Write a sequence for this structure.
């Protein structure tokens, strides 16, 4: 997900608000050590931000730093640094970008130095690479790691044993480690208050997602969606800032619905909605705006996407429950999109295709992310069979520009849109 | 004098090769001899076969298609940047080679194998398919409790499909057999370590692999026969370097590639091949009182070997390899990982750094299970072997 846009892209007011929030967060990070603040590195899926904030620590999300480096054209150099240091060309480029960034001075997206972690909070949720990533960072930073193993929802449900396992890890291991680093005890009433704020923000985010039922859709649930999830998936869930941001965002989207407007694109409002798509897989970050424009130019709006659910499936009913803080954090972690089985992912995508009346379904398969990518060709077949709508398949990468072939991807997308158009005209079965 | 008289181990190696080559015929024969018995496949690294044996199931270790299968349909399910083993596994499944199996267990190795489990449930709907979430918390009252619940779940689900109920008595017998197999494997490993001119790494590999589709008791007999025969060999020491091999913990290299390393002058005295048989180090201690299932679960926590898919809580990554090099008196390490194997390749820089700090020579390369060209690897291993002989830890 993104938290900032390049200057040449047009922005909604909520995006400006988000930019300000992020700048303030990075300012706090810049002075964290001087201010005596502890810094916790953690991951987006299964993040337990409320716990970090309730202990007055500051979260840093290496995935966000990596994608920001991609958007700012820094990732190629960082990846090269990591590969020179012996990292394989075959593995996740987020990891290599992060390791390379560290080796290059750890300068963050706002141009200031990211402080070193006091704790690596390894929320091992839906992505095996997370485990290796923090093993690697532990060697770089020589700091403690709090491992939180989140069981996988292979059977499509959360069992009491799974919930107990996570709660017991939180209670007996993770929270004591966090308290030790923070130098204070966790105030459970404060945590509950934050979880209440989380639920409020989540409510408004769901309304934003569901606005895509309108025609035209007032939002782009993929490219625009990565902005919408910025605050709630990163450093702000459980804060009043996040509540206000999502109120503002919802009001903005409601106004678009009232005016019958389509979504904001990098070049302003989408003039005409020609195709409604559901997209599976993360976006490419090194050519994010080029990629977005390939859709916007053709009048293709993404009405829903799976990537924007990696930090929580709120639209399927989950809300943080302040009455049961540890249990709700456990269920949150287990409910993230990539922690769902392949059959459950297909069911969810089918639901999105039908709910949001999509004309097409597209997979952006990224080389770096086996958690998403392994099995996507079967997802494609299953969805075509179940929904009767045509699927498209393109390949790129998260932050390695060597794997974003602009001409090839543009050609494939154009062919795909032509095919959708032919179907609309009734000349293509 | 016949060939077999010259090498007393040869008939056993031939039997082992047949067990590997004709694995599914072996399974079919077992099912015929055990009417109503179930056979369940499990992907590499650790699945507790002892639990399956305790409920009367034949566990079958699945390693993909190796270099014996042309991948046609399997490739249409995976992008080019996914490793080889899921392709050949799907290929064999679609070819009907796994029809003899009643189910498959996918332990938590990596995201690819995890997702392969999901694909399996969609592609083979009439077969049992389970994901086994191995714990990454190694506290008995947390990770151990969860893992025991996972094992009970699988036993219960298989019970619905016709397996025997899980009982302490069944587990006791299965554990006895499993511990005997562990002891036999340990004696094989010791012989290879002490006298590698009597047991080549590739032979130890074959003998272990022969246990993929037979019960522990039968496998134990095979291993013991081989060890006895190998000890009787009249072979003499050769001027090879002693190496520890790491990285091949899931997708296995072709056996011809292992032999190529040996031909290049490397005695593989320790490896991480076929971890399913070796994840638990030492015998599983059986308490006089208490649930044996819990003892099996706890053994994974406290006796589990380091490998790329297991979180290392306190220890420094790579120190286990350094320690093992010292224990077995190896001269160096060959790091051989499957292409696109995230866990192994993400481990690689950490292991190489630990080896560098310990001044242990190493060389690294990638393979896939269907690698057919060994010349470059053989030359690399040969150069490594020569360098170690000439310069030792300065190589």
């Amino acid at each position: 997900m993104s938290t900032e846009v390049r200057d040449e892209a047009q922005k909604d007011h909520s995006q400006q608000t988000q930019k300000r929030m992020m700048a303030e967060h990075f300012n706090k990070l810049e002075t964290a050590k001087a201010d005596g603040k502890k810094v916790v590195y953690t991951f987006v899926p299964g993040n337990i931000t409320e716990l970090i904030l309730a202990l007055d620590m500051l979260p840093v999300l290496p995935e966000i730093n990596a994608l920001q480096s991609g958007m700012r054209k820094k990732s190629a150099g960082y990846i090269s640094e990591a590969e020179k240091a012996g990292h394989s060309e075959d593995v996740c480029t987020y990891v290599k970008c992060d390791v390379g960034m560290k080796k290059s001075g750890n300068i963050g997206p706002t141009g200031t130095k990211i402080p070193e972690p006091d704790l690596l909070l390894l929320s091992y949720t839906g992505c095996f690479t997370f485990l290796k990533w923090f093993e690697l960072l532990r060697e770089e930073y020589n700091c403690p790691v709090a491992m939180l193993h989140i069981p996988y929802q292979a059977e499509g449900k959360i069992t009491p044993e799974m919930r107990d396992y996570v709660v017991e890890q939180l209670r007996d291991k993770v929270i004591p480690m966090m308290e030790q680093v923070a130098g204070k005890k966790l105030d459970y009433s404060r945590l509950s208050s934050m979880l209440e704020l989380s639920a409020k923000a989540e409510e408004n985010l769901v309304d934003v997602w569901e606005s895509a039922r309108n025609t035209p859709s007032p939002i782009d649930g993929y490219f625009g969606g990565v902005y919408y999830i910025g605050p709630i998936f990163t450093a702000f869930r459980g804060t009043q800032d996040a509540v206000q941001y999502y109120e503002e965002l919802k009001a903005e989207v409601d106004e678009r619905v009232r005016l019958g407007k389509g979504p904001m694109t990098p070049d302003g409002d989408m003039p005409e909605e020609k195709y409604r798509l559901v997209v599976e897989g993360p976006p490419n970050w090194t050519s994010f705006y080029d990629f977005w424009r390939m859709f916007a130019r053709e009048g293709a709006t993404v009405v829903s996407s799976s990537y924007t659910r990696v930090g929580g499936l709120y639209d399927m009913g989950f809300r943080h429950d302040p009455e049961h803080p540890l249990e709700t954090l456990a269920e949150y972690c287990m409910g993230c999109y990539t922690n769902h089985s392949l059959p459950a992912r297909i069911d969810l995508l089918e639901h999105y295709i039908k709910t949001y009346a999509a004309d097409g379904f597209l997979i952006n398969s990224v080389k770096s992310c086996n958690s998403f990518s392994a099995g996507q060709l079967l997802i494609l077949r299953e969805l075509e069979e179940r929904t009767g709508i045509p699927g498209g398949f393109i390949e790129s990468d998260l932050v390695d520009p060597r794997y974003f072939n602009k001409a090839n991807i543009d050609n494939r997308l154009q062919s795909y849109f032509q095919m959708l158009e032919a179907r609309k005209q009734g000349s293509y079965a | 004098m016949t060939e077999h008289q010259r090498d007393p181990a040869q008939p056993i190696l031939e039997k082992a090769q047949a067990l590997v080559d004709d694995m599914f015929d072996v399974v079919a024969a077992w099912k015929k001899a055990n009417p109503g018995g179930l056979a369940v496949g499990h992907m590499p690294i650790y699945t507790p076969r002892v639990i399956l044996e305790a409920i009367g199931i034949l566990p079958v270790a699945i390693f993909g298609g190796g270099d014996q299968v042309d991948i046609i349909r399997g490739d249409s399910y995976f992008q080019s940047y996914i490793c080889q083993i899921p392709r050949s596994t799907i290929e064999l499944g679609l070819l009907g080679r796994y029809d003899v199996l009643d189910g498959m267990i996918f332990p938590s190795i990596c995201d690819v194998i995890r997702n392969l489990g999901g694909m399996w449930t969609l592609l083979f709907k009439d077969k049992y398919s389970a994901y086994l979430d191995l714990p990454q918390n190694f506290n008995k009252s947390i990770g151990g409790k969860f893992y025991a619940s996972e094992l009970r779940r699988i036993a219960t689900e298989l019970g619905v499909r016709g397996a025997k109920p899980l009982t302490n008595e069944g587990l006791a017998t299965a554990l006895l057999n499993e511990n005997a197999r562990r002891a036999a494997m340990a004696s094989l490993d010791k012989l290879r370590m002490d006298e590698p001119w009597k047991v080549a790494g590739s032979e130890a590999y074959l003998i272990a692999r022969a246990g993929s589709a037979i019960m522990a008791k039968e496998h134990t007999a095979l291993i013991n026969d081989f060890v006895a025969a190998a000890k009787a060999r009249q072979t003499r020491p050769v001027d090879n370097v002693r190496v520890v091999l790491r990285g091949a913990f899931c997708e296995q290299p072709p056996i011809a590639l292992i032999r190529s390393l040996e031909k290049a002058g490397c005695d593989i005295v320790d490896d991480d091949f076929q971890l399913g048989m070796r994840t638990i180090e030492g015998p599983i201690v059986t308490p006089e009182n208490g649930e044996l299932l819990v003892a099996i679960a706890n053994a994974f926590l406290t006796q589990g070997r380091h490998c790329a898919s297991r979180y290392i809580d306190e220890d420094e990554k790579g120190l286990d390899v350094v320690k093992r090099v010292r224990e077995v008196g190896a001269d160096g390490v060959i790091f051989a990982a499957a292409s696109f194997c995230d866990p192994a390749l993400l481990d690689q820089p950490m292991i190489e750094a630990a080896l560098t700090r310990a001044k242990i020579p190493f060389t690294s390369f990638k393979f896939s299970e269907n690698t057919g060209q060994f010349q470059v690897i053989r030359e690399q291993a040969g150069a490594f072997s020569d360098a170690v002989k000439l310069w030792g830890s300065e190589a």
In short: Chain A has 18 helices and ten strands. Chain A touches chain B through 51 residues (CB under 8 Å). Chain A has a mean pLDDT of 94.
